[in-house]
Design a protein that fits this description.
- The chain has one domain (9-119).
- The mean pLDDT is 83.
- The longest helix is centred in the middle third of the chain and has 67 residues, at 21-87.
- The radius of gyration is 40 Å and the shape is rod-shaped.
- With 122 residues, the protein is mainly alpha-helical.
- Helices cover 88% and strands 0% of the residues.
- The N and C termini lie far apart (106 Å).
- Helix 2 packs across helix 3 (95-119).
């Protein structure tokens, strides 16, 4: 074997032991594709979770919050009625106290209707 043939054989053997240049690009592309696939799956999972939370809020939480707010408003009005009527000398549980509370409810209803009329609602 001549000197130049020896060099060519040596280079050829070394080339076989080296990784091809394209394989690192393929691996990088495969890694990016894998990352994108998992990102896409995570995005769809987050969208599904958001839909479930929306339905929970729509079906359960919002109606209960509205009912709780209405009950709190009723309790506050009842407490105000009792405090006002007792302030003016009507003991709780008497007929005068009941009439006073009914009159206060009528006053509130009339005021609410005047406000709605002024705003043009209903």
């Amino acid at each position: 074997m001549t000197n130049w043939q020896h060099d060519v054989a040596h280079l050829w053997g070394r080339r076989r032991r080296m990784r091809p240049v394209g394989s690192s690009r393929r691996k990088a592309f495969a890694a990016v594709a894998w990352f994108c696939d998992w990102g896409n799956r995570a995005a769809w999972g987050a969208a599904a979770a958001s839909v479930l939370l929306f339905f929970y809020a729509f079906v359960y939480a919002f109606p209960n919050a509205r009912l709780t707010a209405l009950q709190q408003e009723r309790d506050a009005v009842e407490h105000e009625n009792r405090a006002f009527c007792e302030k003016h000398g009507m003991v709780f549980g008497t007929r005068e106290h009941t009439l006073c509370a009914e009159d206060l409810m009528d006053i509130r209803a009339n005021e609410r209707q005047r406000t709605l009329d002024w705003l043009g609602i209903l």
